[in-house]
Amino acid sequence: MEAPRLAARDLACRRGERLLFRALSLNLDAGTACHVTGSNGTGKSSLIRIMAGLLRPYAGVVERAGSTALLDQSLALDEHLPLGRALAFWAGMDGAVSGDDLARLGLTDLLDVPVRYLSTGQRKRAALARMIGQDARIWLLDEPLNGLDQDAVGMVEQLVESHVAGGGIALVASHQPIGIPGMDVLHLPDYAPGIAA
Amino acid sequence: MSAIRTLLLRDLAQFLPGARKGNTLLPLLFFLAVAMLYPFAVGPNPNLLVATGGGVIWVAALLAAILPLDRLLAPDLEAGFFDQWALRGVAEEMVVAVRLLAHWLSFGPFLMLAALPASALLGIDGATLRTVELGLLAGTPGLAAIGIIIAAVTVGLRSGGAALSGLLVIPLAVPLLIFGAGSLSTGGEGGIALTAAISLVLVAIAPFAGGAAIRAAREG
């Protein structure tokens, strides 16, 4: 399998009239992780979407080699279906999530519960299950710790750590601290009106 | 191939009549309600009903096709499905093409079935009924294609999308209506053939127009 790679050169992002960041470069090779920090509204989520190829950068280029998985605020699971069947749709596209992973995420008992009745933390775990099933080399995580309890935060840290140890790439945008050894930090500065185009 | 099959099965489970607690039955009931109300409104004169009944069925079919438009694509964009498909290399065009098929399957054939009781209510004779059914077979794929294009174009609208998409469908559907309902007065194959031709063109462009519209909405 070709080694995954995620790189960006001289990225700039504009939302409406505001230039969120500019001249941003990053380079992640296999087995590396990067934590994107910054206050609300500094463009963390936009950066994740640009790296995923879902949003066109105002300037700059993104190079992405390898299968990519995205975890953000949208769940992409059918709200009216029981969790098991909602996940089965993605299993049909990606391959199934193993029972071990479901147990680790604490979802085994929730498979019969319709997605719309899940709590915030449970929804995040369900999204994680969807993402793990994809078995992608590059993980783009936008606020993966939102709504999770202490145990679950540790579990996500472990997941990312083992993904990176296995030669994967993780780009994590979060305002919360994440305890993963050897992780780069990319801080997005606050919006400076002076640099608006 | 397995991706197409997975998509189609999910779409059918969402849109076929009776799915999702019967919401999907509403267009059909609406269609029958129009056919039922029309004789009350214009009076029970059989000649009038026979002369205009086929046209009423066509108008009712057009309006019934508009009803599910706001649920066709917008919920999936909002819930992040299109983002996930894009990351897996599933083209928007393919999603829209599969959705078009599911949308047509969920109202076209059922509308043709419902046209049987509707034609009885309007006193339409056998030969006219045959023309209506053939016309609907030729025209409903085109209605579905117009519907999905409009649903894709209005997909990013936060509010008022449903009413606006209904309004936008109507002028685009005029050619289908002219030739489809027009085939009734001429009794002709010509009108049906033209309806089918318009439908084919619409079905051919719908995935590309819809896919481009969804990408544009995501960038916004």
Automatic annotation (TrEMBL), chain A:
It comes from the Bacteria. InterPro entries: AAA+_ATPase (IPR003593), ABC_transporter-like_ATP-bd (IPR003439), ABC_transptr_haem_export_CcmA (IPR005895), P-loop_NTPase (IPR027417). Keywords: ATP-binding, Cytochrome c-type biogenesis, Membrane, Nucleotide-binding, Translocase, Transport. GO terms for molecular function: ATP binding; ATP hydrolysis activity; transmembrane transporter activity. SUPFAM superfamilies: P-loop containing nucleoside triphosphate hydrolases. One of its GO terms (biological process) is cytochrome complex assembly. Transmembrane segments: none annotated. Residues 6-197 form the ABC transporter domain. The keyword Transport applies. It holds the Pfam family ABC_tran. This is Heme ABC exporter ATP-binding protein CcmA. The lineage of its organism: Bacteria, Pseudomonadati, Pseudomonadota, Alphaproteobacteria, Sphingomonadales.
From TrEMBL, chain B:
GO terms for biological process: cytochrome c biosynthetic process; cytochrome complex assembly. It is a multi-pass membrane protein. One of its GO terms (cellular component) is plasma membrane. Keywords: Cell inner membrane, Cell membrane, Cytochrome c-type biogenesis, Membrane, Transmembrane, Transmembrane helix, Transport. Its main location: membrane. Belongs to the CcmB/CycW/HelB family. This is Heme exporter protein B.
